[in-house]
Design goal:
Elements (H helix, E strand, L loop, with lengths): L1 E8 L4 E8 L5 E4 L13 E2 L4 E2 L5 H21 L5 H5 L15 H13 L7 H23 L10 H14 L5 H17 L19 E3 L2 E3 L8 H8 L12 H17 L3 H5 L6 E3 L5 E5 L2 H4 L10 E4 L2 H10 L14 H6 L3 H24 L8 H14 L4 H8 L3 H7 L13 H6 L9
Antiparallel strand pairs: 1-2, 2-3, 4-5, 6-7, 8-9, 9-10
Helix pairs in contact: 3-4, 4-5, 4-6, 8-14, 14-15, 15-16
Protein backbone atom coordinates (compact mmCIF):
# COMPACT_ATOMS: atom_id res chain seq x y z
CA UNK A 1 0.00 0.00 0.00
CA UNK A 2 1.29 3.47 -0.92
CA UNK A 3 1.49 6.17 1.77
CA UNK A 4 2.03 9.90 1.31
CA UNK A 5 3.11 12.19 4.12
CA UNK A 6 5.15 15.32 4.74
CA UNK A 7 8.65 14.96 6.13
CA UNK A 8 11.83 16.97 6.74
CA UNK A 9 14.96 15.99 4.84
CA UNK A 10 18.42 17.21 3.85
CA UNK A 11 19.51 18.17 7.36
CA UNK A 12 15.90 19.03 8.29
CA UNK A 13 15.98 22.15 6.13
CA UNK A 14 13.75 20.92 3.31
CA UNK A 15 10.04 20.15 3.65
CA UNK A 16 8.98 17.46 1.19
CA UNK A 17 6.01 15.28 0.39
CA UNK A 18 7.21 11.69 0.85
CA UNK A 19 5.87 8.81 -1.24
CA UNK A 20 6.62 5.40 0.27
CA UNK A 21 5.65 1.75 -0.06
CA UNK A 22 7.04 -1.18 1.89
CA UNK A 23 10.08 -2.70 0.24
CA UNK A 24 10.66 0.20 -2.20
CA UNK A 25 12.90 3.31 -2.08
CA UNK A 26 11.15 6.44 -0.88
CA UNK A 27 10.58 9.37 -3.23
CA UNK A 28 10.35 13.03 -2.29
CA UNK A 29 8.88 16.22 -3.77
CA UNK A 30 10.05 19.47 -2.18
CA UNK A 31 7.34 22.08 -1.51
CA UNK A 32 9.68 24.94 -0.55
CA UNK A 33 9.02 26.79 -3.81
CA UNK A 34 5.29 26.78 -3.04
CA UNK A 35 5.55 28.34 0.42
CA UNK A 36 5.08 31.99 1.27
CA UNK A 37 7.77 33.58 3.41
CA UNK A 38 10.19 30.66 3.24
CA UNK A 39 10.50 27.64 5.54
CA UNK A 40 11.64 27.50 9.16
CA UNK A 41 11.84 24.20 11.03
CA UNK A 42 10.76 25.83 14.30
CA UNK A 43 7.36 26.66 12.75
CA UNK A 44 6.76 23.07 11.62
CA UNK A 45 4.87 20.57 13.78
CA UNK A 46 6.15 17.10 12.85
CA UNK A 47 3.27 15.43 14.69
CA UNK A 48 0.34 17.21 13.04
CA UNK A 49 2.25 17.75 9.76
CA UNK A 50 1.11 21.37 9.79
CA UNK A 51 2.68 24.77 10.38
CA UNK A 52 2.35 26.19 13.88
CA UNK A 53 0.65 29.56 14.21
CA UNK A 54 3.03 32.09 12.69
CA UNK A 55 3.07 34.64 9.86
CA UNK A 56 1.87 32.93 6.64
CA UNK A 57 1.05 29.67 8.49
CA UNK A 58 -2.61 29.74 7.42
CA UNK A 59 -1.71 30.29 3.77
CA UNK A 60 1.05 27.67 3.79
CA UNK A 61 -1.13 25.04 5.49
CA UNK A 62 -3.72 25.53 2.76
CA UNK A 63 -1.02 25.13 0.11
CA UNK A 64 0.51 21.91 1.47
CA UNK A 65 -2.91 20.37 2.19
CA UNK A 66 -4.04 21.07 -1.35
CA UNK A 67 -0.79 19.74 -2.83
CA UNK A 68 -1.06 16.48 -0.88
CA UNK A 69 -4.77 16.11 -1.68
CA UNK A 70 -4.04 16.11 -5.42
CA UNK A 71 -2.03 12.91 -5.05
CA UNK A 72 -4.38 11.43 -2.44
CA UNK A 73 -7.30 11.85 -4.87
CA UNK A 74 -5.36 10.09 -7.64
CA UNK A 75 -4.48 7.24 -5.28
CA UNK A 76 -8.11 6.89 -4.20
CA UNK A 77 -9.35 6.79 -7.80
CA UNK A 78 -6.56 4.40 -8.91
CA UNK A 79 -5.80 2.00 -6.01
CA UNK A 80 -3.61 -0.18 -8.24
CA UNK A 81 -1.35 2.69 -9.37
CA UNK A 82 2.38 2.08 -8.81
CA UNK A 83 4.59 4.26 -6.64
CA UNK A 84 6.51 5.59 -9.65
CA UNK A 85 3.30 6.35 -11.56
CA UNK A 86 1.81 8.25 -8.62
CA UNK A 87 5.01 10.18 -7.99
CA UNK A 88 5.26 11.37 -11.61
CA UNK A 89 1.51 11.62 -12.25
CA UNK A 90 1.44 15.42 -12.58
CA UNK A 91 4.95 15.82 -14.01
CA UNK A 92 4.97 17.22 -17.55
CA UNK A 93 1.23 16.58 -17.65
CA UNK A 94 -0.70 18.86 -20.00
CA UNK A 95 -4.07 19.38 -18.39
CA UNK A 96 -7.38 19.30 -20.24
CA UNK A 97 -9.51 22.44 -20.45
CA UNK A 98 -11.82 21.02 -17.77
CA UNK A 99 -8.88 20.46 -15.41
CA UNK A 100 -7.53 24.02 -15.54
CA UNK A 101 -10.02 25.65 -13.22
CA UNK A 102 -7.81 27.44 -10.77
CA UNK A 103 -5.27 30.16 -11.38
CA UNK A 104 -2.72 28.14 -9.41
CA UNK A 105 -3.12 25.11 -11.69
CA UNK A 106 -2.34 27.27 -14.72
CA UNK A 107 0.63 28.88 -12.97
CA UNK A 108 1.98 25.40 -12.20
CA UNK A 109 1.73 24.64 -15.93
CA UNK A 110 3.54 27.88 -16.85
CA UNK A 111 6.32 27.18 -14.35
CA UNK A 112 6.85 23.65 -15.66
CA UNK A 113 6.86 24.87 -19.28
CA UNK A 114 9.44 27.55 -18.48
CA UNK A 115 11.68 25.05 -16.68
CA UNK A 116 11.72 22.81 -19.77
CA UNK A 117 12.91 25.54 -22.15
CA UNK A 118 16.34 24.72 -23.65
CA UNK A 119 17.46 28.32 -23.18
CA UNK A 120 17.39 27.83 -19.44
CA UNK A 121 15.49 31.09 -18.93
CA UNK A 122 14.64 32.35 -15.45
CA UNK A 123 10.98 33.14 -16.15
CA UNK A 124 9.82 30.25 -13.97
CA UNK A 125 11.26 32.09 -10.95
CA UNK A 126 9.14 35.12 -11.84
CA UNK A 127 5.97 33.04 -12.04
CA UNK A 128 6.84 31.34 -8.75
CA UNK A 129 7.06 34.81 -7.24
CA UNK A 130 3.65 35.75 -8.69
CA UNK A 131 2.21 32.50 -7.36
CA UNK A 132 3.36 33.37 -3.84
CA UNK A 133 1.85 36.85 -4.03
CA UNK A 134 -1.46 35.46 -5.27
CA UNK A 135 -1.55 32.95 -2.42
CA UNK A 136 -1.13 35.86 -0.01
CA UNK A 137 -3.93 37.67 -1.84
CA UNK A 138 -6.30 34.67 -1.76
CA UNK A 139 -7.73 35.17 1.76
CA UNK A 140 -8.12 38.93 1.18
CA UNK A 141 -10.03 38.20 -2.04
CA UNK A 142 -12.51 35.94 -0.25
CA UNK A 143 -13.14 38.45 2.52
CA UNK A 144 -13.38 41.49 0.24
CA UNK A 145 -15.59 40.24 -2.61
CA UNK A 146 -16.26 36.54 -1.87
CA UNK A 147 -14.45 35.36 -4.97
CA UNK A 148 -12.21 32.33 -5.50
CA UNK A 149 -8.89 31.95 -7.33
CA UNK A 150 -10.55 30.50 -10.43
CA UNK A 151 -10.78 31.68 -14.01
CA UNK A 152 -14.56 31.87 -13.65
CA UNK A 153 -14.09 34.59 -11.04
CA UNK A 154 -11.23 36.36 -12.83
CA UNK A 155 -12.96 39.54 -14.05
CA UNK A 156 -12.61 43.31 -13.80
CA UNK A 157 -13.70 43.36 -10.13
CA UNK A 158 -11.11 40.67 -9.32
CA UNK A 159 -8.35 42.72 -10.99
CA UNK A 160 -9.41 45.96 -9.27
CA UNK A 161 -9.34 44.19 -5.92
CA UNK A 162 -5.88 42.80 -6.65
CA UNK A 163 -4.68 46.29 -7.59
CA UNK A 164 -6.08 47.75 -4.34
CA UNK A 165 -4.45 44.96 -2.33
CA UNK A 166 -1.07 45.71 -3.91
CA UNK A 167 -1.33 49.43 -3.22
CA UNK A 168 -3.08 49.47 0.17
CA UNK A 169 -2.29 46.20 1.94
CA UNK A 170 1.26 45.76 0.56
CA UNK A 171 1.84 49.53 0.58
CA UNK A 172 3.08 49.37 -3.01
CA UNK A 173 5.97 47.02 -2.23
CA UNK A 174 7.36 45.62 -5.51
CA UNK A 175 4.34 47.12 -7.29
CA UNK A 176 6.02 47.47 -10.68
CA UNK A 177 7.33 43.91 -10.74
CA UNK A 178 4.06 42.28 -9.69
CA UNK A 179 2.10 44.45 -12.10
CA UNK A 180 4.23 43.26 -15.04
CA UNK A 181 4.02 39.62 -13.96
CA UNK A 182 0.24 39.68 -13.54
CA UNK A 183 -0.23 41.39 -16.91
CA UNK A 184 1.98 38.75 -18.56
CA UNK A 185 -0.02 36.03 -16.80
CA UNK A 186 -3.32 37.45 -18.16
CA UNK A 187 -1.93 37.56 -21.70
CA UNK A 188 -0.74 33.96 -21.56
CA UNK A 189 -4.02 32.73 -20.10
CA UNK A 190 -5.90 34.55 -22.88
CA UNK A 191 -3.84 32.77 -25.56
CA UNK A 192 -3.88 29.31 -23.96
CA UNK A 193 -6.57 26.99 -25.33
CA UNK A 194 -6.62 24.88 -22.18
CA UNK A 195 -7.91 27.80 -20.13
CA UNK A 196 -11.47 29.07 -20.24
CA UNK A 197 -10.53 32.73 -20.08
CA UNK A 198 -10.90 35.72 -22.37
CA UNK A 199 -9.42 39.14 -21.69
CA UNK A 200 -12.77 40.70 -22.54
CA UNK A 201 -13.85 39.52 -19.07
CA UNK A 202 -11.64 42.15 -17.44
CA UNK A 203 -13.10 44.83 -19.72
CA UNK A 204 -10.78 47.85 -19.86
CA UNK A 205 -8.96 47.21 -16.60
CA UNK A 206 -5.45 48.62 -16.43
CA UNK A 207 -2.96 49.04 -13.64
CA UNK A 208 -1.96 52.64 -12.86
CA UNK A 209 1.40 53.50 -14.42
CA UNK A 210 2.63 54.05 -10.88
CA UNK A 211 1.14 54.64 -7.44
CA UNK A 212 -0.26 58.12 -6.94
CA UNK A 213 -0.50 59.87 -3.61
CA UNK A 214 -1.63 63.50 -3.39
CA UNK A 215 -0.92 63.91 -7.11
CA UNK A 216 2.71 62.91 -6.57
CA UNK A 217 3.99 59.83 -8.37
CA UNK A 218 5.63 57.44 -5.94
CA UNK A 219 7.67 54.71 -7.62
CA UNK A 220 9.72 52.18 -5.67
CA UNK A 221 13.44 52.79 -6.18
CA UNK A 222 16.08 50.05 -6.13
CA UNK A 223 18.15 49.47 -3.01
CA UNK A 224 21.70 50.80 -3.45
CA UNK A 225 24.91 51.40 -1.51
CA UNK A 226 26.09 54.94 -0.87
CA UNK A 227 29.62 55.95 -1.90
CA UNK A 228 30.98 55.59 1.65
CA UNK A 229 29.42 52.12 1.91
CA UNK A 230 30.95 51.10 -1.42
CA UNK A 231 34.37 52.17 -0.19
CA UNK A 232 33.88 50.27 3.08
CA UNK A 233 32.86 47.15 1.15
CA UNK A 234 35.87 47.46 -1.19
CA UNK A 235 38.21 47.67 1.83
CA UNK A 236 36.40 44.97 3.81
CA UNK A 237 38.46 42.75 6.12
CA UNK A 238 37.46 39.41 4.62
CA UNK A 239 38.56 37.47 7.71
CA UNK A 240 35.77 39.23 9.63
CA UNK A 241 33.11 37.91 7.23
CA UNK A 242 34.52 34.47 6.47
CA UNK A 243 31.73 32.55 8.23
CA UNK A 244 31.51 28.88 7.18
CA UNK A 245 33.33 29.42 3.87
CA UNK A 246 36.99 28.92 2.98
CA UNK A 247 38.94 32.12 2.46
CA UNK A 248 39.39 31.58 -1.29
CA UNK A 249 35.60 31.27 -1.62
CA UNK A 250 35.10 34.49 0.37
CA UNK A 251 37.59 36.27 -1.90
CA UNK A 252 35.62 34.95 -4.88
CA UNK A 253 32.35 36.28 -3.41
CA UNK A 254 33.94 39.70 -2.84
CA UNK A 255 35.42 39.86 -6.33
CA UNK A 256 32.09 38.86 -7.87
CA UNK A 257 30.42 41.84 -6.19
CA UNK A 258 33.23 44.20 -7.16
CA UNK A 259 32.93 43.06 -10.79
CA UNK A 260 29.21 43.92 -10.70
CA UNK A 261 30.09 47.39 -9.43
CA UNK A 262 32.67 47.88 -12.16
CA UNK A 263 30.82 46.31 -15.10
CA UNK A 264 27.09 46.96 -14.40
CA UNK A 265 26.49 43.23 -14.96
CA UNK A 266 23.72 41.09 -13.54
CA UNK A 267 24.91 38.37 -11.12
CA UNK A 268 24.48 35.53 -13.64
CA UNK A 269 26.33 37.51 -16.34
CA UNK A 270 29.34 37.98 -14.05
CA UNK A 271 29.46 34.21 -13.49
CA UNK A 272 29.27 33.59 -17.27
CA UNK A 273 31.75 36.40 -18.09
CA UNK A 274 34.29 34.90 -20.51
CA UNK A 275 37.61 36.07 -21.98
CA UNK A 276 36.02 36.14 -25.44
CA UNK A 277 33.76 38.96 -24.17
CA UNK A 278 36.80 41.27 -23.95
CA UNK A 279 37.27 43.15 -27.23
CA UNK A 280 39.01 46.24 -28.57
CA UNK A 281 36.83 49.05 -29.97
CA UNK A 282 37.58 51.45 -32.84
CA UNK A 283 39.32 53.83 -30.42
CA UNK A 284 41.77 51.09 -29.42
CA UNK A 285 40.22 50.72 -25.95
CA UNK A 286 39.35 47.44 -24.31
CA UNK A 287 35.64 46.93 -23.74
CA UNK A 288 33.45 44.14 -22.37
CA UNK A 289 30.90 43.11 -25.01
CA UNK A 290 28.28 40.42 -24.33
CA UNK A 291 24.61 39.47 -24.73
CA UNK A 292 23.03 39.36 -21.25
CA UNK A 293 21.73 35.93 -20.34
CA UNK A 294 18.29 37.46 -19.80
CA UNK A 295 18.21 38.49 -23.48
CA UNK A 296 19.54 35.24 -24.95
CA UNK A 297 16.12 33.57 -24.87
CA UNK A 298 14.62 36.17 -27.22
CA UNK A 299 13.89 34.52 -30.57
CA UNK A 300 14.37 37.71 -32.58
CA UNK A 301 18.11 38.37 -32.78
CA UNK A 302 17.48 42.11 -33.14
CA UNK A 303 16.00 42.10 -29.63
CA UNK A 304 19.11 40.52 -28.12
CA UNK A 305 20.67 43.69 -26.75
CA UNK A 306 24.46 43.64 -26.68
CA UNK A 307 25.92 45.26 -23.58
CA UNK A 308 29.19 47.15 -23.97
CA UNK A 309 31.03 48.67 -21.04
CA UNK A 310 34.56 50.10 -20.78
CA UNK A 311 37.10 47.73 -19.22
CA UNK A 312 38.73 49.61 -16.33
CA UNK A 313 42.09 48.74 -14.77
CA UNK A 314 40.56 47.72 -11.39
CA UNK A 315 38.40 45.20 -13.28
CA UNK A 316 41.50 43.97 -15.14
CA UNK A 317 43.16 43.46 -11.74
CA UNK A 318 40.40 41.05 -10.72
CA UNK A 319 40.54 39.31 -14.10
CA UNK A 320 44.29 38.77 -13.77
CA UNK A 321 43.80 37.28 -10.29
CA UNK A 322 41.93 34.32 -11.81
CA UNK A 323 43.50 34.12 -15.26
CA UNK A 324 44.19 30.55 -16.36
CA UNK A 325 42.01 28.89 -13.72
CA UNK A 326 39.24 28.10 -16.22
CA UNK A 327 40.08 25.89 -19.20
CA UNK A 328 36.94 27.18 -20.92
CA UNK A 329 37.92 30.86 -20.63
CA UNK A 330 35.51 31.93 -17.88
CA UNK A 331 36.87 34.86 -15.89
CA UNK A 332 35.81 33.51 -12.47
CA UNK A 333 36.32 29.85 -11.46
CA UNK A 334 32.64 29.31 -10.75
CA UNK A 335 30.96 27.95 -13.86
CA UNK A 336 31.96 25.49 -16.56
CA UNK A 337 30.01 23.55 -19.16
CA UNK A 338 31.45 20.31 -17.76
CA UNK A 339 30.24 21.18 -14.26
CA UNK A 340 26.81 22.14 -15.60
CA UNK A 341 26.36 18.82 -17.40
CA UNK A 342 27.33 16.89 -14.28
CA UNK A 343 25.21 19.00 -11.92
CA UNK A 344 21.81 17.53 -11.10
CA UNK A 345 19.88 20.68 -12.13
CA UNK A 346 22.19 21.64 -15.01
CA UNK A 347 23.22 25.19 -15.84
CA UNK A 348 20.37 26.87 -13.99
CA UNK A 349 20.99 24.81 -10.87
CA UNK A 350 24.68 25.67 -10.83
CA UNK A 351 24.03 29.40 -11.22
CA UNK A 352 21.28 29.30 -8.61
CA UNK A 353 23.50 27.47 -6.11
CA UNK A 354 26.31 30.04 -6.37
CA UNK A 355 23.86 32.95 -6.17
CA UNK A 356 22.27 31.43 -3.06
CA UNK A 357 25.66 31.00 -1.34
CA UNK A 358 26.64 34.54 -2.32
CA UNK A 359 23.46 36.03 -0.85
CA UNK A 360 23.91 34.05 2.38
CA UNK A 361 27.43 35.49 2.66
CA UNK A 362 26.16 39.01 1.94
CA UNK A 363 23.76 38.77 4.89
CA UNK A 364 26.78 38.32 7.14
CA UNK A 365 28.49 41.25 5.41
CA UNK A 366 25.43 43.44 6.04
CA UNK A 367 25.61 42.63 9.77
CA UNK A 368 29.32 43.39 10.01
CA UNK A 369 28.90 46.65 8.08
CA UNK A 370 25.74 47.46 10.11
CA UNK A 371 23.74 48.18 6.97
CA UNK A 372 20.03 48.91 7.33
CA UNK A 373 19.24 47.49 3.89
CA UNK A 374 18.68 43.97 2.56
CA UNK A 375 22.04 43.33 0.92
CA UNK A 376 21.93 40.88 -1.98
CA UNK A 377 23.84 40.42 -5.22
CA UNK A 378 21.57 42.66 -7.30
CA UNK A 379 22.27 45.65 -5.01
CA UNK A 380 25.70 46.03 -6.64
CA UNK A 381 24.26 46.28 -10.16
CA UNK A 382 21.62 48.75 -8.96
CA UNK A 383 24.35 50.75 -7.22
CA UNK A 384 26.58 51.09 -10.29
CA UNK A 385 23.65 52.15 -12.50
CA UNK A 386 22.27 54.64 -9.96
CA UNK A 387 25.62 56.30 -9.27
CA UNK A 388 26.42 56.56 -12.97
CA UNK A 389 23.11 58.39 -13.49
CA UNK A 390 23.70 60.67 -10.53
CA UNK A 391 27.12 61.78 -11.80
CA UNK A 392 25.11 64.02 -14.11
CA UNK A 393 27.10 64.18 -17.35
CA UNK A 394 26.59 60.65 -18.69
CA UNK A 395 23.82 60.21 -21.28
CA UNK A 396 21.14 57.80 -20.13
CA UNK A 397 21.50 55.88 -23.41
CA UNK A 398 25.16 55.23 -22.52
CA UNK A 399 24.25 53.91 -19.08
CA UNK A 400 21.60 51.67 -20.66
CA UNK A 401 24.23 50.32 -23.11
CA UNK A 402 26.64 49.61 -20.28
CA UNK A 403 23.95 47.80 -18.30
CA UNK A 404 22.55 45.80 -21.23
CA UNK A 405 19.05 47.18 -20.85
CA UNK A 406 16.74 49.76 -22.44
CA UNK A 407 16.47 53.50 -21.88
CA UNK A 408 12.80 53.07 -20.92
CA UNK A 409 13.75 50.53 -18.24
CA UNK A 410 16.33 52.93 -16.81
CA UNK A 411 13.82 55.78 -16.80
CA UNK A 412 11.17 53.64 -15.15
CA UNK A 413 13.22 52.09 -12.33
CA UNK A 414 16.05 54.53 -11.69
CA UNK A 415 14.47 57.87 -10.90
CA UNK A 416 16.92 60.73 -11.51
CA UNK A 417 15.70 64.27 -12.04
CA UNK A 418 18.91 65.38 -13.77
CA UNK A 419 19.17 62.74 -16.48
CA UNK A 420 17.20 64.71 -19.05
CA UNK A 421 19.77 67.54 -18.97
CA UNK A 422 22.99 65.53 -19.24
CA UNK A 423 25.36 66.37 -22.04
CA UNK A 424 27.25 63.85 -24.23
CA UNK A 425 30.93 63.42 -23.46
CA UNK A 426 33.91 61.71 -25.05
CA UNK A 427 34.44 58.00 -24.46
CA UNK A 428 37.59 58.52 -22.36
CA UNK A 429 35.72 60.74 -19.93
CA UNK A 430 32.86 58.24 -19.66
CA UNK A 431 35.30 55.42 -18.95
CA UNK A 432 36.88 57.39 -16.10
CA UNK A 433 33.64 57.53 -14.12
CA UNK A 434 33.97 53.93 -13.00
CA UNK A 435 37.36 54.42 -11.35
CA UNK A 436 36.16 55.52 -7.93
CA UNK A 437 33.85 52.51 -7.71
CA UNK A 438 36.80 50.10 -7.65
CA UNK A 439 39.73 52.19 -6.55
CA UNK A 440 40.32 50.05 -3.46
CA UNK A 441 40.55 46.70 -5.27
Amino acid sequence: MIHISYTLQKGRKTLSLCFYEKGKPRKYKSVLDKLTGGFSEKNWNSTTKQFRKSPNSEINNQVINKFKKRYADVLEENPSISLDELYSYFDNKRTDPEQVNTIFDFLDTLINDEKKKPTGGCNFKCYEKLQKRLREFESYLKEAISKEMTFNDLDEVFCDTFKDWLIIERKGKDYEGIKKLFTSFLNRADKNKSVDFDKSKINKFQFPVCISDANECICELPVILQKEQMEEFANLDLTAVQGKYKMDKVQLFHDTCMLMLGTFMRPCDVVLFNERNIQTNVHGQNVISYVPKKKMSLSNRSKQKVARVPLEKPVETIIMRYRGQSEEGFILPIYSEIKAKAYKDGKEGLLKKFNKDLNIWLKKVAKVMKLNIELNAYVFRHTSISHALNIGHIPIATVAKWAGTSVSMIEQYYNNSDISNVQPTVISSICATNNYLLQAV
